[in-house]
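We were asked to recover a plausible sequence for a given structure. The inputs and outputs are reproduced exactly as logged, with field labels preserved.

PROBLEM: sequence recovery
POSITIONS: 96
GIVEN STRUCTURE:
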């Protein structure tokens, strides 16, 4: 999959407004009720990421989970990153 150019990245970011660009990656922090809820979210993300053959960097801090996406083998952001970001944003409310 080929890297997106600056214009394509800007357009793709509009579809995931809570994500921010961090160099050659995009990132978002989700907040949950507690640690077990955060881990449940990570488990679901791991499942969908595995199905997409795309693996985010995941940072868990008690009730917060930060996902960072980039397509390592392409050397930057691709459509694959934004598709996974949208899928994560559409996950059911796992905060309970």
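RECOVERED SEQUENCE:
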């Amino acid at each position: 999959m080929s890297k997106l150019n600056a214009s394509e990245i800007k357009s793709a970011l509009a579809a995931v407004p809570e994500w921010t660009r961090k160099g050659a990656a995009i990132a978002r922090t989700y907040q949950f009720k507690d640690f077990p809820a955060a881990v449940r979210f990570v488990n679901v993300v791991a499942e969908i990421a595995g199905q997409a053959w795309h693996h985010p960097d995941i940072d868990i801090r008690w009730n917060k989970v930060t996902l960072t996406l980039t397509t390592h083998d392409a050397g930057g952001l691709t459509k694959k990153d934004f598709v996974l970001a949208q899928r994560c944003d559409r996950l059911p409310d796992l905060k309970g």
